[in-house]
Structures are given as C-alpha cells and as structure tokens.
Amino acid sequence: MDRMADSGKSRGSGVCVKVNNSWGNNANVVTIARFCSPNLELLALKFHPFYLPREFTSVIINTVYIPPQANMDTALANLSRAVPTLYQHVIFPTRGNRTLDHCYTPYKDSYKALADQPFGKSDHATIFLLPKYKQRLKWEAPVQREVTCWTDQSGAALQDALDDADWDMFWHSTDDVCEFTEAVVGFIGKLVDDTIPRITIKKFPNQKPWVDKTIRKALNSRTAAYNTRIISGNMDEYKSASYGVLRW
C-alpha cells in the first residue's frame, strides 16, 4: 500500500503484505481497509487460502506500522490494553533490547514466536510464527447422534398418516387454545417418531451442522484437486472443484 497524498509523509512507500504462492494468490485476497496518517499506517486484508482447518473459513491479516515520531496515545500502540481479547505472541526483543514488533491473534496458544535474521538493511529481527494450534478434530472426540432419516418414501408415509388423522377430535376435546396446540404438536411428533426411521451417525467436532454427504463429497474433491495441483502445477482442476464447493 503506497502512502497517500494526505498522509503528511514524504519518505518510504508504506506497508505491504507478501503471500507465498503455495498458500494463496491474488484471486483469494480482498482489501478490507487501508489507512495512512502521521501516526499510523494500516493495511487490512481478507484471505481465502487454498487450505485451512475446517473450523476457519478465512484469515484476516492487519498490518500496522507506527513510526517512531508518532503520538503513541493516538496510535493506540498497545493492543493488549485496548483489545484484551487479542494475545501478543512476541516475547523477545526485536530491535536492540526492546520489543518493537508485535504479532496478535485471538488465540492464546496458537503460535510460538521465534526470532530470525533481519531482511536486507532492516535492523528489526524477523519474526517466525510456528503454529501450535491443534485442530478441533484432533483434540475433541467425535460423538454419536441419532437423527431422523428423511426420504421421499418416509415423507410420503408421514403425509398419508397426517391425511388419515381425525383432527376434529382435538377441537372437541378442549376449548383452550394452548391445550389444543400442545395436543396437536404432540400428536404430530408421535406420528413423526412412528413413521420416519432414525439412524445413528458420528458427528466430528469440526463439522458444521449444514455439511451433509453431498458437501463433504465436494470438499473431498477439492482437497484431492489441491494435492494434484501441488504436483502438476495445473490450477484448472482445483478452481473447478472450488467452484463446485461454492455452489452448495
């Protein structure tokens, strides 16, 4: 992001974010916000990488630079006090004996920060974030659930049972609308239990409630296309599989 004309700055070219081509490309990046002032420079981006743990749909990266001459109160430099739900992962000096470079995420134990050599002529240490996050699939056990198995046949059987029911008996049994509603709802529930078969399924902790076997098949096809893309370098099959997921 180049510095804008009204930023009051004449040196430097602003902040930027570089993305490894194996993680994402320009088609997967959306600019959320960009801002430049004498006290702060901000570039906020939303990423849809080729692969993420299923419980995450996207990654939002906020890159912030606060120059030495900035008003720290105005720049709101310490996010740990301003936004206590964010966690600062850098616990070592990044320039001399001071920790000037911070990395915040919403997850306390998601990364381990390591120091590395500076880039080019910079005098700030490079920060390498080593993921510590464990997928929910690995730290939560799957659970067994009993669900109704709706099919065209079972739906038709339920409709026949509803058509054959004597609904007048509910009208004649009570003059209270609340009792009438409770009786009708309970009767319909009993018909559903007697007519619609139930099956036991295994529910995984990272599985969204709306993900059925059709969507899982599309997701598996996308993952297979991604693994093939790594070897062949051909993006066409992966793009087609990604569009197939979005259609659902």
Structural overview:
This protein has helices at residues 72-75, 79-82, 136-139, 152-164, 168-173, 177-195, 213-232, 236-247, and strands spanning 29-36, 41-47, 59-65, 87-88, 104-105, 111-116, 126-131, 143-148, 198-203. It is α+β, with helices and mostly antiparallel strands. The chain has a three-stranded antiparallel sheet with strand order 1-2-3, with no helix packed on it. Strands 4-5 form a two-stranded antiparallel sheet. The protein has a two-stranded antiparallel ribbon with strand order 6-7. The protein has eight helices and nine strands. A hairpin with a 4-residue loop joins strand 1 (29-36) and strand 2. The two termini are 35 Å apart. It folds into three domains: 5-133, no CATH class; 143-201, no CATH class; 208-247, no CATH class. The radius of gyration is 28 Å and the shape is elongated. 33% of the residues lie in helices and 20% in strands. The longest helix is centred in the C-terminal third of the chain and has 20 residues, at 213-232.
